Amino acid sequence: MNFKFNQVIFNLVKTTNFWQANYLILRQLKHFKFITTVAISCTLIGAFFEGITVSLIASFLQSLTNPNEPPIQTGISWFDGVILATKATASVRVYRLAAVILIAIWLRSLLHYWGQLYTGLAQCHLSNRIRKLIFEQLQSLSLSYYSKIHSGEPLNSITREVNELKQVFNLTAKIIAQGSTLLAYVISLFWLSWQLSLVAVLMFSLLSVGLSTLIARVREASFAIPKANGQLTSVAIEFINGIRTVQASATQDFERRRFYRATNQVMAAETQVKTASALVQPLAEGVSSTVLIVIVVGAFALLIETGQIRAASLLTFMFVLFRMIPLISQINHSRENLSRFQGSIGNIKELLRRENKTYLTNGGIPFAKLKHSIEFVAADFGYNPHELVLKNINLAIAKGQTTALVGASGAGKTTLVDLITRFYDPIKGQVLIDGIALSESEINSLRRQMGIVSQDTFIFNFWGV
């Protein structure tokens, strides 16, 4: 029964926008549950101590400013008696509250340290896992995938975009921490004065709605940045790998124009995001400060003069509001930064998707050696299914027979050989070795029996192997 209930809750969570937007991160947290649990627990408990500190400060100020008035009470007998010292003298109450406030502050700081530490560890584990997932995905994909993309795009994903994913996790953790602290502040405000709190919540809610529209613009603009960065990385890789050819053919001006065009596209995409995002924090701070002044003036005119709120409570209320304004600004800034990285997150999710990509299914028959022949039976192939490079190829090559493939550039010679090595599978027809379809043979055992001379030379660095 408990299992079914948990499954229902999990299914409900999966339908939320938060899960759908961040499932790539959330699914990976199960692989380092302890680290994630400690990070979240320390964050939430730290927020609890933040709220406790506020209530202690209210009692502390009351004891300092009006020691003869009845002390502020929460209604929780043990808390009022042991912590707030409501039954003690004013001087004893001041000393006890000062000591308890210091203890609460240091506990909150210690929890904040642990939360930051374990959040950082979770970031490292997450980025390490995502890089490995991307690598395994790139290893398992058919070469037809690589013929459809720029060479710099996967490199950009495995380096720059994974680093941005770390920032997304850090920002998400910050929003959770800041949101928990904000919730503690809001509860404290309602405890001090529900009238002023309702006004504050209403005004800040209107501010949040306005900023959400601006943040949505930042999010939409962010999708152009990873695309432009991928194009720039591709151009840079092609230039560096082909520098000998570039200089030999005196095409430096052409390459310069390509590179300048690519880097200008990156600048244009980043400028569009910066233009929208630069307005978020100043606008939030300006409106928040205005709200604070309006609340303080209104409280003085309507509540203090009529005796509905004590001066110490108003001072504490102002203290909490002053703490809330930069916190709200930080949350909005984190939301804006989070929106900027949605393009990178979308690229990584798209790269890791399996349902829209072609994979070579490994066969189960080990290949020992060629015994009779290689045959093409009505084989069709094209990098684009609508534009065939090879059409209805029927060819038999006997063991020991020397065969030369002759034709113009682009006629399909390399493609024909790539079908034998099973870098690709035919769209139609079959390739047989000794009467067995290549798709039924174990890929690595097949390729180990082949001598392949590549047209390209790569020098692999075996550092750390």
TrEMBL record:
It is a multi-pass membrane protein. Residues 44-340 form the ABC transmembrane type-1 domain. GO terms for molecular function: ABC-type transporter activity; ATP binding; ATP hydrolysis activity; ATPase-coupled lipid transmembrane transporter activity. SUPFAM superfamilies: ABC transporter transmembrane region, P-loop containing nucleoside triphosphate hydrolases. Gene3D superfamilies: ABC transporter type 1, transmembrane domain (1.20.1560.10), P-loop containing nucleotide triphosphate hydrolases (3.40.50.300). InterPro entries: ABC1_TM_dom (IPR011527), ABC1_TM_sf (IPR036640), ABC_transporter-like_ATP-bd (IPR003439), P-loop_NTPase (IPR027417), Type_1_exporter (IPR039421). It is found in: Cell membrane. It comes from the Bacteria. Coiled coil: none annotated. Keywords: ATP-binding, Membrane, Nucleotide-binding, Transmembrane, Transmembrane helix. The keyword Membrane applies. The chain crosses the membrane at residues 34-61, 94-111, 283-303, 309-328. PANTHER family: ATP-BINDING CASSETTE SUB-FAMILY B, ATP-BINDING CASSETTE SUB-FAMILY B MEMBER 6. The keyword RNA-binding does not apply. This is Heterocyst differentiation ATP-binding protein HepA. One of its GO terms (cellular component) is plasma membrane.
